[in-house]
Amino acid sequence: MAGGRPRDPHAEEAILRATLDLVAEVGLSGLTVDAVAARAGVGKATIYRRWSSKEALLFEAVATVAEEPPSPDTGSLRDDLLALSVPLGEKLADPHQGRVMVEMAAAAAQDDALREVQRAFVERRRASGRAILRRAVDRGEVPADVDADLVLDLVVGPAIYRSFLSHRPVDADLMVRTVDAVLAGLAVAAPS
Amino acid sequence: MAGGRPRDPHAEEAILRATLDLVAEVGLSGLTVDAVAARAGVGKATIYRRWSSKEALLFEAVATVAEEPPSPDTGSLRDDLLALSVPLGEKLADPHQGRVMVEMAAAAAQDDALREVQRAFVERRRASGRAILRRAVDRGEVPADVDADLVLDLVVGPAIYRSFLSHRPVDADLMVRTVDAVLAGLAVAAPS
Amino acid sequence: MAGGRPRDPHAEEAILRATLDLVAEVGLSGLTVDAVAARAGVGKATIYRRWSSKEALLFEAVATVAEEPPSPDTGSLRDDLLALSVPLGEKLADPHQGRVMVEMAAAAAQDDALREVQRAFVERRRASGRAILRRAVDRGEVPADVDADLVLDLVVGPAIYRSFLSHRPVDADLMVRTVDAVLAGLAVAAPS
Amino acid sequence: MAGGRPRDPHAEEAILRATLDLVAEVGLSGLTVDAVAARAGVGKATIYRRWSSKEALLFEAVATVAEEPPSPDTGSLRDDLLALSVPLGEKLADPHQGRVMVEMAAAAAQDDALREVQRAFVERRRASGRAILRRAVDRGEVPADVDADLVLDLVVGPAIYRSFLSHRPVDADLMVRTVDAVLAGLAVAAPS
DNA sequence: TATTAAGCGAGACGGTACGTCACGTCTTAGG
DNA sequence: CCTAAGACGTGACGTACCGTCTCGCTTAATA
């Protein structure tokens, strides 16, 4: 048993593009499936056949354009961490992207499936961060028993906190000072 | 001309209570103005007369029940910081409250007025935190040029980041390890 | 046992005037008590203290400006009837007044009290018409057993029917032809 | 491009039936679109997709159940006219139907489109009446230059006037006496 | 003259219905 | 079986009026 018309890949592409365009224009909360369908020149059913909700659609659309997490290996822990955190800071500093990020976080908070998607998305970036720390351990820059997860939380947390909750500006300088403060803590914890 | 029947404070109270009850039951996204009105035994217009949106209503309801920010003065920077951060961690660890927090953050991201309310709310807590650091400076625990804002971001950020974005558990232990890591950084920055 | 402030006759007058102005502008269905109160510079309670509904208010407002029914006595039945019917035709021919009349009829259809008011209002005009016919009988113009009520119904009915239901124009010529046709019927019923 | 799901004729039917049921129960003014939707098991949008107002809906519902205008041909002008007017009299005599009729007239007075609908509805009945008179002319019962429109206005007007405005009872006897009076006028106008 | 009961403008109150919007599903005809 | 189009039932939205109810004032007639 088989056959039937195959799904049109053009439709998929058009939907994702329309989604990104619209979310940039009106935000996640202002996004409507009707508008996506109209913009993409597609029936609503064609969207729901592929995604279970507009949030799921947005998550995939965002994933589509998200570049691979950077895996920097500059030989310096500080530079590696900055290569990881500065792009995040730039994303949060952009009002559009920052708003969409917190709206996605809110959506994920209410839906187990989306939460898992977002967790996995973040985890991929964290894996890259753990690799950075592993190399730093190998180089002797930090003690072997460093709590990599906590270090990453400390590097990333302040920017998230500022952007999502305390509504103070995020910029590159913040990321630098954050990394330096965290490294200071690692140094004292591991004196020669 | 001044006249007119004054607004009924009982209605105000009933609305806020109904809002809190309902948001605890169904979350911000599941909250409807109709339901609040019904639960409070109030007409919808009575709600809209006071608040411009259900988000604004929720913000005030939450502010109403929010206890004053703790102003601990234990004589120890570490204990003071924990007194500040552990209650936040507990709030985030509760699925209900954590979800509502990120939903409120998303709402604030889309509305200037709400953003300002949230910013002020957070700022009051941060002021308490800056006082803690000032006292620590006075005691000589940390150098006078400590960047209090960054320290507070580092203390709070990881928990926010975990709860909102990376969806890993938050608990008291996390708060302790975070504070200790931050203090380690301060120590090395200010060696005797 | 004592007084209390007497009702302000200025308020009464202002309310009735505002009602007539507004009903001319927006019709009975578009009339709101709030608007009447605002226009009259009066509290809503001051209106409800005097009238039980906006329809009752309108009925009294209209009665206030309604001139006394004409009691023509030209010596000719034809002229007397025309003196009675032509002004009605003019009222119906005016789109504003015609619309308000049918709206008032609809309101009266739903409310016993208003129906009685309207019935009495019409009855006063009919009494004048019956007097006309009585005089015509006295003059020997028509037989003594003429059914005055039916004659009046025949004189007035066509204009009402055209205006309310069949939506064809009403004009003075219609009233003349109607009266002449009715008189023709009377003549044959009372030959020489 | 033509596609799209066709409108469900079952919904249409259910809506019209619910409308008639409800208007019989509560009258036009007591009719609510919500109630129609609930009774018909239909969403409100499904109603608004087809009709622009509850009045428009009612007009169509009434038209749906209105029997074709009688086209009597008894060979007698008197009997033909009675065949036309007596059923109208019965309709007006019924409090329910009479009330709805005047409410519909009031609605038509305020809306051009509805007025045209009602005008056309009445006109169809009037055409039947004109045919009656034409045949009477052919038979030589009345002169060729009879003003058919005026005759019909005279036959129908009194009942309308009584029901809508003067609030006196309408019954079959009234219709008979009206027709006889009108015929008397025609006879004198056309003596052998 | 002091009291007092009712009226006053203003406007908030609990309701009800409005007409709109977006949801996610379903039903067409056609490829 | 997929497609575009678009109607479907559901349910919340924010608005507009309804008729009632305080408010803090007059304003006269009564005691």
UniProtKB/TrEMBL annotation, chains A, B, C, D:
GO molecular-function terms, A-Z: DNA-binding transcription factor activity; transcription cis-regulatory region binding
This protein's name: TetR/AcrR family transcriptional regulator
PROSITE patterns membership: HTH_TETR_1, HTH_TETR_2
Annotated ranges, domain HTH tetR-type: 9-69
Pfam families with a match to the protein in the record: TetR_C_11 (PF16859), TetR_N (PF00440)
DNA-binding region: 32-51
Keywords: DNA-binding, Transcription, Transcription regulation
InterPro entries (UniProt xref): DNA-bd_HTH_TetR-type_CS, Homeodomain-like_sf, HTH-type_TetR-like_transc_reg, HTH_TetR, Tet_transcr_reg_TetR-rel_C_sf, TetR_C
Coiled coil: none
